[in-house]
Amino acid sequence: MKTSVEGQRVLVTAGAAGIGRAIAQTFLEHGARVHICDVDAQALAAANREMPAATQTRADVASTADVDRLFEDVARELGGLDVLVFTAGIGENSAEVRAAACERLAFLGIRLDETGKSTVKPDADISDHGSQVRVLVIRAKEDWAIARGCLHLA
After folding, report:
1. Which domains does the chain have, with CATH numbers?
2. Of 2, 1, 8, the residue nearest 84 (C-alpha)
3. CB-based contact 14:89 (threshold 8 Å)
4. Helix (H) or strand (E) holding 86
5. CA distance 73 to 13
6. Were 128 and a residue from 8, 21, 78, 111 both cysteine, which residue would form a disulfide, CB within 3.0 to 4.6 Å?
7. Which backbone phi and psi does 111 adopt, to 5 degrees?
8. Residue 93's CB: how many other CB atoms inside 10 A?
9. What is the pLDDT of residues 110-149, one digit of tens each?
10. Nearest one of 86, 32, 22 to 55, comparing CA atoms
11. Using CA atoms, how far apart are residues 13 and 91, in angstroms rounded to an integer?
12. What pLDDT, in 10s, does the model give residues 19-52?
């Protein structure tokens, strides 16, 4: 099993802010090629300033049209995919949305295990042993982000 992410092609959903941005930045710092998607155009612009090496798409993973465009962008920018990270919002919390997105990527060799097709605990690898792409669900911990933001206001 490969443990280095150097050269890996990574897509991070909700990757423009919070834990998603931190995940994307960490992958970049360790030599991965990263593409982020987010629904927030302003957050994407800020992420682009801080992580110019990451490519990006404005997309809502609950929208079939957005998902199609996102995967076209990923194919063009990264030439494939090795790791898919669902974090925050509907990607983190909806097994149905994750399954539908992964089904559209079956041509890349994505296969979810039975747990990944249903409700899953956060911070889990939901890809099947035979999957050619690792699929991760990482909890956003939005309550901690809000608390940290409040500290800066005080």
Report:
1. 9-153 (3.40.50.720)
2. 8
3. yes
4. strand 83-87
5. 13
6. 111
7. -140, 125
8. 16
9. 888 876 555 666 788 888 889 999 988 888 765 555 555 5
10. 32
11. 7
12. 899 999 999 999 999 999 999 999 999 999 999 9
What type of residue is 82?
D
Which residue is it, tokens 């099993």?
Answer: 1
Reported pTM = 0.84
Are the beta carbons of 59 and 66 closer than 8 angstroms? yes
- Give the Cα separation of 57 and 49 in Å (integer): 15
Is 85:35 a contact under the CB 8 Å cutoff?
no
Q: Which two tokens stand for residue 151?
A: 């500290």
End-to-end CA distance of the chain: 46
Is residue 89 within 8 Å of residue 38, measured between CB atoms?
A: no
The separation between CA 55 and the C-alpha centre of its own chain, rounded to angstroms, equals 12
Is there a contact between 130 and 143 (Cβ–Cβ < 8 Å)? Answer: no
> What is the Rg, in whole angstroms, of the alpha carbon atoms belonging to the chain?
15
Compute how many other C-beta atoms are within 10 angstroms of the C-beta atom of residue 83: 19
Q: What does the alpha-carbon distance between residue 27 and residue 34 come to, in Å, rounded to a whole number?
A: 7
Distance CA 32, CA 26 (A): 9
